[in-house]
Design brief:
5-stranded mixed β-sheet; Aminopeptidase; 162 residues; alpha+beta; 5 helices
Length: 162
Amino acid sequence: MSLHLRPAMRADLPVILKLIEDLADYEKLRHACVATREELDKHLFGEHPWAEVVLAEWEGEVAGFALFFHTFSTFLAKPGIYLEDLFVVPERRGRGIGKALLVHLARLAMIRGCGRVEWSVLDWNTPSIEFYESLRARQLKEWHVYRLTGAELEALAGGKPD
């Protein structure tokens, strides 16, 4: 039994996309998953990478991933890490892979001088909520997430840029 964490490389794009699609299926959000290899390549490995991916390999096979990016806290005056997605394939759960990915991000946050690591979880995802709370993460009950996408984003922006 061996677990290895490593930064994703461009050659990993097919497996990253598959993990994202599997996550979308798990979260019952496949209809919202429009990610493509081309978009992932551009935004993960292009001229200006917007996010990073750490892959977890169990006995040489990819078993999960964490996709994250930096944020900034004005109150802390420090950067932070926002964990966009954490996913472990169902047949590899219960082996400490998710925890290892979070420990890795916590260490990375400390190395990079970050003041926090944050993420969101769907309110029905009890197994994940219990897992996060077992790591002493706390839910911020006083905050609500808001989002603009698609037509609403375009309307507020006054149309698509030229």
